[in-house]
């Protein structure tokens, strides 16, 4: 059964094989064995497609200021709509520098200029799949996330204060978060998401978040979030494992690599490069007595504890499931029996 | 014949496979078939391989079958192509053009950013250039291995610039024939795509036996079930494959099987829009805006804080291999399944081609991780709420998740005995549901008139006679699991399968839980007043818990 257990143990001083998928149509710029830094371009690709949605009134009218093929700059006017007999005026502006690709019904398509894909973390290129993928081997601390969204990114860690209430978020977040990976060691209020988008943070790493606030934020921002998010514990109010708290608490100002994960392929992670890779990278994550675990379901869901013993006999839960139990001593004190499949190893 | 099944109670059945990933996670359960009788198969036990007899593997790919179905969506052809793709198990991560899912700009975005393994298309001239450029870019990176052009010869000539790997003549006839024709034409391509998928290719290195796609095996299993009936024509069997946050429904109708899939994260397809185990969210398809949110709460027999509920559901869907240890958790998970399944039925009804997948099922079978354990009574209540059977309908439960294995046996050419499963069979008869069709219930002002008089008894003994009232759920346990002689004498306006007000008489089996009489209305509409709803749901739950 051990092979199927969940595992989210923090791996300190480990070697991390970071796989970076390059978008279709891109060209890989590095070769196997090359040393890369955060800012090293590893691939150059076609520009991204941006859409500006236009009102139905503009369709077929002469309000367009640009035509397909025209170069545009961010902030430039794309279309103008007049209403109320010319007294009202609405301007639709370009979000990026690029070229007008096409004008579709109710949508103007702009392709941004070619951008380079940066490595994001220091390391050595371990493998290159032509026009498709680059694997960078780096050394440091790897923190797996519970949930995440958004593309891989990097930046200096900014330790935000108390973000668990909107007022705290208002107080702690400002222009200083631009380009940083904001780390919140507690539950994070939805207001923080708005402020981080406004001030241009590249990522948010938080202990927990309310799913409804995240969904409401995503409903406004669309399918690609404006910054990468990694939730470390769970949705709802959960506190961080002490080891992770210490690790992140001491990372202020250091560069962190954050990836929201690839569905079906890579889980969300936070990686803190250190240059030292000889620690517990090959730790045995099979469940054993003494391991630190997180309870995933049941009355004690979300709590942390230590495995006391692993009885071999099967038991039946009140809900009718036959399970192998594990005796766990919770950090809050009580000793409980939990189904083995409801545990996640968080430390060895 | 031992099998390796890719489904297991504590195992996420999705096989994670990147070509370069060192560890390949496959879980499963061994199953031994006694002779050719799958109804007497031994209870499976967990195992992960090392089987020395004939072996069949069933995999459920996620990565390596990312597909785009690019067609004009408003047309009937789109519904037909989608049904054919779903039947074959194609993972459609993106669908259609010009609709709310993918607009013109979105198509550009998809082709630029998302790796696609296959494109099934019949594009309009306005999208031809975008598709051609996008496919070329994808091919440069080693994606878009299969591009199938569907259409007439004239259309194909115009679209030859795409350089498809296969071309398919659009079949003629009614919707059923078109789906079957298209399915047949696409089968080779999809099989190639499946076997080229990185994980499946890697699995081939260590596995000598045949490997089947789970959808393919389930379709074969569904056909086996249809053959249990006296006559293939006119028989409808429905199999629900219930996974955390997703549901696949297999409907066998006149010998043909049709599959529909729905996923809480990705809306229509269990594709890359979700990955519960990896914890990657699809933010646009949040629980609040997709099928859940309030609809989950309405299936709970208690008041739940909406924010807390949504967090619980999101956490459950991100770690689906856990088991519920409290009744509150079990009921929440069952409520999620109800909401997703009912939403799936609604979407399928709105999108399916005419004449496909409708009709009252004569048998209902449930399988999947969601029902691979847990209280039998709670599972029965889930099936009644989800499938809403009418007339006299036996409900079967695949507690051990062996249905795909049986399907794989059928695909291997094994002639399986067509016999009704007994109470100790791995796929057992859970209960027989008796419910009138087209009945409305006034929950605010309940009426206590008689819906039907029921007479049930073991042949040769005195029968039990009682009356059914509207708005009730009652279970008649049959401890001996005997067959009973059942006589239903409905009041005018109530139809139990013989016609409005007409007597229905026959011999039925009770199965594990017995006979369940469901007069809560068809379609089932829950009381709008919260207090009444909760009180009623508690009554129904108490009934199945007491007797289940």
Notes on the structure:
The complex is a heterodimer of chains A (348) and B (548). By secondary structure, chain A is mostly beta strands. Chain A contains four helices and 28 strands. In chain A, strands 2, 4, 13, 14, 15, 16, 17, 18, 19, 20 and 21 form an eleven-stranded mixed sheet that branches. In chain A, strands 1-28-22-23-26-27 form a six-stranded mixed sheet, with no helix packed on it. Residues 1-5 of chain A have low confidence and may be disordered. Chain B has 13 helices and 21 strands. Chain B is globular, with a radius of gyration of 24 Å. The two termini of chain B are 33 Å apart.
Mind describing the biggest β-sheet of chain A? 11 strands, mixed
Distance between the termini of chain A: 18 Å
Query: How many helices of chain A in DSSP terms?
Result: 4
**Spatial arrangement of strands, main beta sheet of chain B:** 12-11-10-13-14-15-21-18
Topology:
The complex is a heterodimer of chains A (348) and B (548).
Chain A: E1 6-7, E2 11-21, E3 27-28, E4 35-36, E5 41-45, E6 49-53, E7 71-72, E8 77-83, E9 88-93, E10 98-104, E11 107-112, E12 115-118, E13 123-129, E14 133-144, E15 147-149, E16 153-159, H1 166-172, E17 181-188, H2 190-199, E18 203-209, H3 211-221, E19 228-235, H4 242-249, E20 255-259, E21 269-273, E22 292-295, E23 304-309, E24 315-316, E25 322-323, E26 325-330, E27 335-339, E28 343-347
Parallel strand pairs in A: 1-28, 16-17, 17-18, 18-19
Antiparallel strand pairs in A: 2-14, 3-5, 4-13, 5-12, 6-11, 7-10, 8-9, 10-11, 13-14, 14-21, 15-19, 16-20, 20-21, 22-23, 22-28, 23-26, 24-25, 26-27
Chain B: E1 29-30, E2 45-46, E3 57-59, E4 66-71, H1 76-88, E5 91-95, H2 104-113, E6 118-122, H3 125-140, E7 146-151, H4 153-158, E8 166-169, H5 175-196, H6 198-206, E9 211-213, H7 214-226, E10 236-243, E11 246-253, E12 256-263, H8 294-297, H9 306-318, H10 327-351, E13 363-367, H11 376-387, E14 391-398, H12 403-411, E15 427-435, E16 452-457, E17 464-468, E18 473-476, E19 483-490, E20 504-509, E21 515-518, H13 530-547
Parallel strand pairs in B: 3-9, 4-5, 4-6, 6-7, 7-8, 10-13, 13-14, 15-21
Antiparallel strand pairs in B: 1-2, 10-11, 11-12, 14-15, 16-17, 16-19, 18-21, 19-20
